[in-house]
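Listing S7. Sequence submitted for prediction.
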Amino acid sequence: MNNLPKIGVPLLVGISFLLLVFAKSFVTIGSGEAGVLYKLFGGGVVTDEPPLDEGFHIVLPWNSVFKYEVRQQEVFEKMNVLSSNGLDIQLEASAWFQPKYEDLGKLHKEKSEAYKQRILLPAIRSAARSVVGRYTPEQLYSSKRDDIQTEIFDETKKIVDDQYIQLNEILVRDVTLPPSIKEAIERKLKQEQESLEYEFRLVTAAKEAEKQRIEAQGKADANRILAASLTPNILRDKGIEATLKLAESGNSKVVVVGSGKDGLPLILGNN
């Protein structure tokens, strides 16, 4: 009886150790994650096999599994960059990215879990400085925002493509200029807009004047043609036709034949 406690303690320790070993052998990979296996006695990080997929896995207790999120993620970066004329510009951008699934082991071995801070963010800063340095503050403020965004994406992608990172999109969230430069640009844009509006009014007025001139010329030409065609004989015939129509109407009238100008009849009505 006195020996039972001495046997029970080592047994309890042994059972606890076995439970701990078994617990370390069970690994669960969550949704949107993948696992990189590290073999303590098998060459370290496994790079020649696919990563562990979502679900339950059993690994040897002396090995380790490093979990990575493989869904699309987003990082924000706020940086100061210089324009083409040396002015300090504040640029805020974000990147949509994810690690390349098939290269997850290489990413862990060569870049580590801090790959965003070591690779992605420095690449974005480098590309942004290179691209923004080609443009003036006015271009950054107005017309070239989409071009800048595309160019930063292209240059960042070139850097990270062989770093086992998949870049999906770069979004330029905000471009902040020095207040004095921003005000000067806004004044210039306003003046340009007013100038364009004035030119538009001038063009509109010129077109309206041309339209009226053409209409007046058309009327003058029509009157000239009409005047040339109205000979005395034609006018006399028209007068006779009008007299006959009036004579046939039911209105009271007195027709005096041959008393009008050019021998046309006079028509005297009740009024």
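Caption to Listing S7: primary sequence and predicted structure tokens for the chain studied. Residues 179-229 form the longest helix (51 residues). The mean pLDDT is 80.
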